[in-house]
Amino acid sequence: MLHIVNKSASERSSLESCLRLATQGSAVLLIEDAVYAATTGNAAAAKIQAAAAGLKIYALGPDLAARGMAGRVLDGVNVVDYGGFVDLVAEHSNCQSWL
Amino acid sequence: MQFGILVNEGPYNHQASDSAYLFARAAIEKGHKIPRIFFYHDGVNNSTRMAEPPQDDRNVTTRWSKLAQDHGIDLVVCVAAALRRGIKDELLAPGFRISGLGQLVEMGIQYDRLVTFGD
Amino acid sequence: MSDMDDMDDGSGIIKKFMFLNRKAPHGTVYALEGLEVVLITAAFDQDVSLVFTDDGVYQLMKGIDTKGIEVKDFSKTYRALEGYDIEKLYVDRTSLDARGLTEDDLIVDVTVLADDEMANLMAEQDVVISF
Question: Which sequence positions of B are flagged as catalytic?
Answer without folding.
Answer: 78
